[in-house]
Specification:
- Keywords: Coiled coil, Oxidoreductase, Pyridoxal phosphate.
- Its cofactor is pyridoxal 5'-phosphate.
- It comes from Streptomyces fragilis.
- The structure is a single chain.
- With 961 residues, the protein is of the alpha/beta class.
- The protein folds into four domains: 123-324 and 340-355, Type I PLP-dependent aspartate aminotransferase-like (Major domain) (Aspartate Aminotransferase, domain 2); 359-468, Aspartate Aminotransferase, domain 1 (Alpha-Beta Complex); 529-772, 3-Layer(aba) Sandwich (Aspartate Aminotransferase, domain 2); 775-929, Aspartate Aminotransferase, domain 1 (Alpha-Beta Complex).
- The strands form five sheets. Strands 2-8-7-6-5-3-4 form a seven-stranded mixed β-sheet, with helices on both faces.
- Helix 6 (99-106) packs antiparallel against helix 15 (345-383) and helix 23 crosses helix 24.
- 60% of the residues are buried.
């Protein structure tokens, strides 16, 4: 008898993507559920999630589609974008990503799925790459200390304003901004200044600081170099004047221009900021790109964000690490100097490798070519009777065409080129690495003139002033000279990636970080030129596909969270926090409640919460955490009553930072609302809620989301990230907006929190694709399996390690905290020892000592299959047995595999004097010899690194190449 045939309609569907994203299959889930004690996913989550917050209805989202169908949809959206030659400028330029970098960094999961290098022993590759980036920035800016990247140029300039206030002599003085600064930078500075009471004055500084301003107290000055108009001017006298007035001077500089122009450091600047986008990073409709900041040596320990330095490991070998202040929010909280918790590591690596690949001569050649095109363009316009506004330029030429600027811009657009419409009388054209002769001819034709590139090449005057030409050498370190051939570059990139641990090797069970699958289908469209090569200030009609994708993603995120409106502009979770708090502030001020400035924050909250609140002009009041890890309701009630008339907002994380579904969350929200306050629900733990509960329905007024956690944007070794802000309708008028793109936000908005209108738009196709691939039911199931995986790990580890906090039914949410403090007290084995020993077993450690010192917070996510979960659990059980040997005295407290972990291949060479076997050191139970991950260094001395801060490439002999 013939077996029944599968219907064609079913065959056409193939294997649902959900089965690719979710690790445990049906059989594995059944085993895990049995371990936890429940019969189904629905039964488990019904017990774990409090009834008061549960969704009443299924998510109203389009049904799941196959990978092929989603790629076809994205192709249709991409085809609706028009990519014209990008000659708008304003800090965004066409660039050519060397294919060896595109394929082996941007498209390589060994680089893009790595986590922030807080475990430096297994992050040496990307730390070296970041050190290259820092050296590149320090050399080109002429300032000795550079950070490991910031979010973009606009926010870097705002951070410079804050830094000036911290280190400057005139603490309460105004911040003076060059009128020729990038308009988006000015707007971001103004957004960030207003809540903290900093006065920003924008003035024409081309002839120095005007007398009426010079007579006032000035804290800091920001100068654009070259200016937004393209003007290149000698700013040395302006810097000297500012210093005489006691001001700290920041120069926002174009790094490519600095290969030809005298550096800001040599001109006397204290701080330099900018973007590295044009160093091989696609524009991506505005991001992500690596901003930069470099400072004088005396300001090094005040830098915001991250700084890579050099320390040494247990054998005295040089080793890289993040330096002392890089997680200061978690320590200093409301006293933190910045809320920056992330960087743009993947993009910084690309930019740094662009410099490694091209070297100083190659970069200078690109700059000279770009500049020559600008010279020829200007000469052709002048020959045709068009007035050029500036006497000197690098890549941008501004022309005066009274009353017909719009006509010229339109004519250029018809010829495939986007120019910048400055005003009714002025047009700017910016040349870049991708500019060719055809673009110059199109621009000339748009102005109504003719030009001959060949003829003008020999006669065009040089637009760079001779007195400003750079004479010092830069990028002298061997790394910028050794990798000219593609073979050498390919092997260098491979060598560095082999020193790291990323998701392509194994599980990264970091609590609060949600290191889940970043599917290739989701990633692929990011590099399509229709998404990657679009300028953020291109006319809206050229970005129809992008804008449709953005609107759809906003709407779907609103549906998932239960809010009414979403802004995708914040390009990191910290910026989403700030945007959400600024919306709350705007709402209260619009209602006349100017005294509502108190922000209540639980003591267990993520450190950026407090830092963001201070940046939003709020006063932080800490609420106690009860012994069970939940908010101390009595203390909260007392704080609400005490600050009733000045209460602005309560910030909570849900599920709690301790990984628990708090049953009284709705009551907490109601108490705050009754007192006139708002509720901010931090979205860091949204992976436990999608499809099960909506923050906007159980009491939240505003949340930020982490698309680099819940919605599959990869962590990139510590960035990029996207931190959208979602609000209920009454806060929607106070979302971010943007001066150069009306569609980016409401007219009544608080201003931009990122330089680009839609933030890191270039990676939004990833999250759009994830939601489209999964559909509402798939998203819910992913959440349920994440909760199952966390409870499975907790139940299996519970006999060996105490699980610190649980909720209803003894269950956790999507993560669990295991308590090592009793073991440390009994045996001396620390949380650091366990984390480093996990490296020997082939794992990245869970989150250490957050939110509770001496603990490990484990988040397995839904994407890890049962075999990997069991491998991790068995490693932890084996480590528990090792701890017992230390406690019993079988292994000495100061000489055991935990205290000496991690063990490198080098530890096997030579005489072995330890109290345990070599095999125990490097091949503990269950570790496969062929698949062994070998850490490149032993345990790093953090204290040594803090005392001996080094932040640029050390001599070549400091590390093994």
């Amino acid at each position: 008898m013939t077996a029944p045939r599968t219907p064609l309609s079913q065959l056409e569907q193939g294997i649902p993507f959900e089965q690719r994203h979710i690790g445990p299959d049906e059989g594995s889930r059944a085993k895990m559920l049995a371990q936890v004690g429940y019969g189904s996913l629905d039964e488990l989550t019904a017990a774990a999630v409090p009834d008061v917050i549960k969704n009443a209805d299924a998510l109203d989202l389009p049904g799941a589609r196959t990978e092929a169908e989603v790629l076809a949809e994205l192709r249709e959206l991409a085809d609706r974008n028009q990519v014209l030659a990008p000659m708008i400028g304003l800090g965004y330029h066409g660039t050519f990503t060397p294919p060896v970098i595109l394929r082996n960094v941007m498209e390589n999961p060994a680089w893009y799925t790595a986590y922030t290098p807080y475990q430096p022993e297994i992050s040496q590759g990307r730390l070296e790459a970041l050190l290259n980036f820092q050296t590149m920035v320090a050399d080109l800016t002429g300032l000795p200390t550079s950070g490991a990247s910031l979010l973009d140029e606009g926010t870097a300039a705002a951070e410079a304003m804050a830094l000036s206030r911290r280190v400057g002599k005139k603490k309460n003085g105004l911040f003076l901004v060059d009128a020729d600064a990038l308009p988006q930078t000015v707007a971001v500075i103004e957004t960030r200044a207003e809540p903290t009471g900093v006065e920003v004055v924008v003035a024409d500084l081309s002839q120095g600081i005007p007398a009426e301003i010079a007579g006032r107290e000035i804290n800091g000055v920001l100068i654009q170099y070259p200016g937004a108009s393209g003007a290149v001017r000698d700013i040395k006298l302006l810097i000297d004047q500012a210093h005489e007035l006691g001001a700290v001077v920041t120069v926002a500089a174009d790094l490519l221009a600095l290969t030809l122009l005298t550096s800001p450091g040599e001109l006397g600047a204290d701080i330099a900021v900018g973007t590295t986008q044009r160093f091989g990073v696609p524009m991506g409709f505005g991001g992500p790109h690596a901003g930069y900041m470099a400072v004088r040596e005396q300001f090094a320990r005040n830098l915001p964000g991250r700084l890579v330095g050099v320390s040494q490991d247990a054998d005295g070998n040089k080793a890289y690490r993040l330096a002392l202040q890089t997680r200061e929010q978690h320590i200093r909280r409301e006293k933190a100097t910045s809320n920056i918790c992330t960087a743009q590591v993947l993009l910084a690596v690309m930019a740094g490798m662009y410099a490694v690949y091209h070297g100083p001569d190659g970069l200078k050649g690109i700059a000279e070519r770009t500049h020559r095109y600008a010279d020829i363009l200007a000469a052709g316009l002048r020959a045709g009777g068009v007035e050029i506004v500036n006497d000197a330029w690098f890549d941008t030429v501004t022309a005066r065409v009274e009353g017909r600027a719009a006509q010229v811009v339109e004519a250029a657009r018809d010829r495939g080129v986007n120019l910048r419409l400055v005003d009714a009388d002025h047009v700017s054209a910016a040349c870049d690495e991708t500019t060719g002769r055809a673009q110059l001819e199109a621009v000339w034709a748009a102005f109504g003139v003719e030009g001959d590139v060949e003829a003008l090449d020999g006669t065009a005057a040089d637009g760079l002033p001779g007195g400003l030409l750079r004479t010092d050498v830069y990028l002298t370190h061997p790394v910028f000279h050794q990798h000219r051939s593609e073979t050498a570059m390919l092997r260098y990139l491979r060598r560095l990636s082999d020193r790291d641990y990323a998701l392509d090797r194994g599980m990264i069970p970091l609590g609060s970080c949600t290191m889940k699958l970043n599917a290739t289908t989701e990633m692929e469209p990011v590099t399509w030129p229709e998404f990657g090569a679009l300028h953020p200030f291109a006319p809206a009609e050229q970005a129809e596909g992008y804008l449709s994708l953005i609107r759809e993603l906003e709407e779907r995120l609103a549906e998932v969270t239960g809010y009414d409106k979403v802004s995708l502009q914040p390009n990191a979770g910290s910026q989403g926090e700030l945007a959400g708090l600024l919306a709350v502030r705007g709402y209260h001020r619009a209602n006349g409640d100017l005294d509502r400035t108190v922000c209540l924050i639980p003591s267990s909250a993520h450190g950026t919460n407090a830092a963001s609140a201070v940046m939003a002009g709020m006063k932080v009041v800490v609420v106690k955490t009860a012994d069970d890890g939940e908010i101390d309701v009595d203390d909260l009630r007392a704080k609400i009553e005490k600050h009733r008339d000045e209460l602005s907002v309560l910030m909570i994380t849900y599920p709690s930072t301790h990984g628990v579904f708090e049953e009284h969350v709705a009551d907490i929200c109601a108490q705050v609302h009754e007192a006139g306050g708002q509720v901010y629900v931090d979205g860091a733990n949204l992976n436990a809620l999608v499809g099960l509960a909506k923050p906007g329905h159980f009491g939240g007024d505003v949340s930020h989301l982490n698309l680099h956690k819940t919605f599959c944007i990869p962590h990139g070794g510590g960035g990029p990230g996207v931190g959208p802000v979602a609000v209920r309708s009454h806060l929607a008028p106070y979302l971010p907006n943007h001066p150069l793109q009306p569609a980016a936000g409401p007219e009544t908005g608080v201003g931009p929190v990122s330089a680009a209108p839609f933030g890191s738009a270039g990676i939004l196709p990833i999250s759009w694709a994830y939601v489209r691939l999964m559909g509402g039911e798939g998203l819910k199931r992913a959440t349920q399996v994440a909760v199952l995986a966390a409870n499975y790990v907790a139940k299996r580890l519970e006999p060996h390690y105490p699980v610190l906090y649980t909720g209803p039914g003894g269950l956790v949410a999507h993560e669990c905290i295991i308590d090592l403090r009793p073991l440390t007290k009994a045996t001396g084995v620390t949380v650091d020892d366990v984390a480093k020993r996990l490296i020997d077993y082939g794992f990245h450690a869970p989150t250490m000592s957050f939110p509770v010192a001496g603990t490990l917070m484990i988040e397995p996510t839904e994407s890890e299959d049962l075999a990997e979960l069991d491998r991790f659990v068995e490693a932890m059980i084996a480590i528990r047995a090792e701890i017992e040997k230390v406690g019993s005295g079988e292994w000495p407290a100061e000489d055991n595999p935990l205290r000496n972990a991690p063990h490198t291949a080098g530890t096997l060479a030579g005489e072995w004097t330890h109290a345990y076997e070599r095999e125990t050191a490097v091949f503990p139970g269950g570790v496969s010899m062929p698949d062994k991950y070998w850490p490149p260094v032993r345990r790093i001395d953090q204290a040594f690194g803090d005392r001996n801060l080094v932040c640029s490439c050390p001599p070549l002999d400091a590390y093994d190449n």
